[in-house]
Design goal:
Blueprint: H1 5-8, E1 14-23, E2 26-29, E3 46-48, E4 51-59, E5 62-67, E6 78-83, H2 85-108, E7 113-119, E8 124-129, H3 136-151, E9 156-162, H4 163-167, E10 172-173, E11 183-184, E12 187-193, E13 217-220, E14 235-241, E15 247-254, H5 256-276, H6 283-315, E16 319-321, E17 324-330, H7 336-346, E18 353-360, E19 362-369, H8 375-386, E20 389-392, E21 396-400, H9 406-411
Parallel strand pairs: 10-13, 17-18
Antiparallel strand pairs: 1-2, 1-6, 2-5, 3-4, 3-6, 4-5, 7-8, 8-15, 9-12, 11-12, 12-13, 14-15, 16-17, 18-19, 19-21, 20-21
């Protein structure tokens, strides 16, 4: 048998066995159905002889049971062992759900490879290697396929096969680095999610490459699994992140937390429907329309602000400084970047040096020149006088964080 006895008989949660060794809180048993933490799946919880199990480690093919307190039972004594069924079943469901997700990835993602997974009480994460960008639309497709496979009641089976045979199969997700517990003495444990549902109805989905109908997923795995996908229950794909180069992490929730997430998403959808006054199926289109309108309004406001800045600049009285013509004015509701565009266009046309000062969150100044005067030198003069900081080039520079109003900033230039 390859791997842990718990993986071969995951529905066994009560058993009696002999204690073979004790070292403080560490206990060895003749036979153990406890799952030792391995490959991203946490250790089982439960009791041995009435003492709580704090951890189970799988070391060199043996289970080391770490108890919460030193036991009163002795070596050679038979003890009753009880595994926490609720947590065991959660891990079985979560682990199977990760395989279902990978099977969905086979059909949606290019150049797919397996980078590992992890089960926590809050969520399950699956690391995928793929050249496909997993955007929101792809996440929705993954979520749909996962839940469809759960609904279809596909059988889940496991078997030990020679490693050499498994290596030759293109349909096996094979990663010895992340699934060390699946390999033993030249054999590997394969977990298969079948192609038919419990009633023998063939599934209509096909591989991305257009090939014939196939098993949903086959993977080298040493973890515990349910016997049928219908036992997985509610699943919700939560999101994605990038944990490292070449990897995309997809996270999902199983059971009550999946239901909670569905409820939160439903509340948002219903609130959007009420706010927009549109049927639920039209909310997305209405949001797209409002987003487009907002972008148009933003562009219009930006254009009006620019026109206002240009008008203020054209109405400002020019003055001479160091033999060059300067023009300067203050602005309202115009940020430094917009002011920089206006000043650059006016420099050399309206005056040799153009200075615009405003207060968008904090006082700033923008200086543009035709090259006769260094804009950086003017900004340095202002920061020496009023603090703050900035920089730029010889023809365009800006600074901010001044301890002065825009009017005070310009006044020092026109002395």
């Amino acid at each position: 048998m390859t791997g842990q006895r718990a993986a071969a008989e995951p529905y066994t949660t009560r058993f009696e066995t002999e204690v073979t060794s004790i070292d403080g809180c560490r206990v060895w048993l003749e036979t153990s159905y406890f799952y030792g933490e391995s490959g991203g799946q946490p250790a089982d919880r439960g009791t041995i002889g009435g003492v709580e199990v704090a951890d189970v480690r799988y070391v060199d093919g043996e289970h080391v049971h770490v108890l919460a307190a030193e036991p009163s039972f002795r070596v050679g004594q038979r003890v009753l062992c009880s595994i926490d069924w609720s947590f065991r079943m959660y891990c079985m469901r979560a682990h199977t759900a990760s395989h279902v997700l990978y099977g969905a990835g086979r059909r949606l993602l290019e150049d797919l490879g397996y980078g590992g997974f992890d089960i926590s009480e809050e969520k399950v994460r699956v690391d995928l290697e793929t050249s496909t960008e997993i955007d929101d639309e792809t996440l929705l497709e993954l979520d749909t396929l996962v839940n469809r496979v759960v609904w279809e009641s596909r059988p889940v089976t496991w078997e030990d096969v020679p490693v050499a045979d498994a290596r030759e199969r293109d349909d096996v997700a094979f990663n010895e680095a992340t699934e060390e517990g699946a390999f033993r003495k030249g054999r590997v444990r394969l977990v298969t999610i079948g192609s038919d549902d419990a009633n023998g109805n063939a599934n209509g989905l096909v591989r991305r490459d257009g090939g014939a109908r196939d098993r949903w997923d086959v993977a080298a795995c040493g973890g515990t699994h349910v016997r049928n996908t219908r036992e997985v229950g509610p699943v919700t794909v939560l999101g994605r992140s990038n944990p490292g180069e070449g990897l995309t992490r997809v996270e999902l929730a199983v059971g009550p937390r999946a239901i909670d997430r569905r409820e939160a998403e439903k509340r948002v959808a219903l609130a959007s429907r009420r706010t927009l006054g549109a049927p639920l199926e039209e909310v997305e289109g209405e949001l797209d329309r409002l987003t487009a309108e907002r972008e148009e309004l933003t562009d219009e406001v930006r254009s009006l602000r620019r026109e206002l800045a240009e008008t203020r600049l054209e109405g400002a009285a020019p003055f001479e400084r160091d033999g060059f013509e300067w023009v300067a004015t203050t602005l309202e509701d115009v940020d430094a970047n917009e002011a920089g565009d206006v000043a650059s266009d006016a420099a050399g046309e309206l005056a040799d040096v153009v200075v615009l000062a405003g207060d968008a969150n904090s006082p700033y100044a923008v200086v543009a020149t035709d090259g006769a005067v260094s804009a950086e030198d003017v900004v340095a003069e202002l920061t020496d006088e009023f603090g703050g900081g900035g920089g730029g080039s010889a023809t365009l520079a800006q600074a901010g964080g001044f301890d002065a109003t825009p009017a005070e900033i310009l006044a020092v230039l026109d002395d």
